[in-house]
Amino acid sequence: MCTYSADDYGMFQSLCHFPAGKHAKGEMRRIVDWDTNEYHGDIPEVEETYNVVGNINEWQVTIGETTFGGREEMVDSTGILDYGSLIYVTLQRSKSAREAIKVMTTLAETYGYNSGGESFTICDPDEAWIMEMMGCGPGSKKVVWVAVRIPDDAISAHANQSRIRTFNVKDKENCMASKNVVKYAREQGWFTGKDSDFSFCDVYAAADFGGRRFCEARVWTFFNKYCDYMDKYVDYAAGKVKDAEPMPLWIVPNRKLSVKDLEMAMRDHYEGTPFALDSDIGGGIWEMPYRPTPLQFECDGKKYFNERPVSTQQSGFVYVSQMRSWLPREIGGVLWFGNDDANMVAYTPVYCSATRIPKCYNTPGADAVTFSMENAFWVCNWVSNMVYPRYSQMFPSLELVRDSLDNSYLSQQALVEEKAKQLDGAAAAKYLNDYSCQKCDEMISRWRQLATYLIVKYNDMVVKKENADGSFMLSKHGIGERPVRPGYPEKYAKELIKQTGTKFEVAK
User: How confident is the model at residue 11 (pLDDT cuts 50, 70, 90)?
Assistant: First the structure.
């Protein structure tokens, strides 16, 4: 399994689909930058391409990423392939994680890599790899890269900070790297030690305060859920102790993880940790575990920062990819997908064999500046943006609907897939595609109901009373029952009085 959140302010995302195809000799593939929509050029097509749904293909290969930047002078601004295009082109051309690594690096070294440093998660039903890549400067059409296999009993994470340090290129089962990965650093005067001491992270993208507090802290909180020794890495994740011991690339968890575990891990706001967001007034009256952007701000000539949790408001989409070698591939690959902040959405199942994308995830006419009631991104954002500022009041209502849907999908999975196994490949794929579209239609319908429920129940900062069946209470005269006026939470009230003293004290 692997999980990913696409975070960027103003980002509008759909669930992309590239149908399988056969291509004539000489046919070209147009490359448009995934972030900016800028046309970069064309590359030759291959004879056959595979079906791709979101970040998984029909062979259950999944690729995710996080951007870490690194040395700015290493970006090849003349390259054709940006990191997003590289992912989706590679998914169309790869049957395994190892093949995907070969395809990605060959493409970058042939046509140039027009992005900053990236960490890629590259997985198939049998293996999981982390690959880190950077260009070698404008016009170079070269990259430096290293890929490390994650052990089968381990979990790994990366969150916008390079994480691969030393590596063993002689261990070809578990490590791959470009021939120039150390040589290039020597040529630039950035490294002079032994090859065995070379650290990709420290040479090409050393972690500063932001890299640790805004990025590595999110890895820390993920690991912390599944082992009991992460306390020793708190100083490193906090970013203020210069020589603190860095975290390992992976850990062996204290139990097996499920799809549900990964879904919940992506909803984390550092709850119950030293980085928790519930101990100050930054969340407002109703204790929102989110903070406004940018991450850093100035006040009275000093610089300050906001925490950056795993779950964050700028998510365009989130997924958990499930890849299973013991099932036919049209059944084994599932992309559990949501089109907003992971904390604010249900993860709907979309199978890797899908040839028809649910309308709510690919809605004609909807875009970053055009709202649509048929579009999951906009309906989910409509709801979440009502909830954010009144979190402690409204989130329990959202959470109830979210978890009800999630649990229903997971509880139905075995039965649905058992039925699919009784069908031949094409019929199974169609059955699963129809099932996914049905569940996605039901999800957005339920989310629209949630939106109208929230505006009625919590209108004007009061709370309307409900009956046991969920209907709103009426008075004996047939109008809405008087609502509850909850006022300030006690903690916020105390802080308000602390700041204002006797200003609002009622005269005796």
Answer: confident
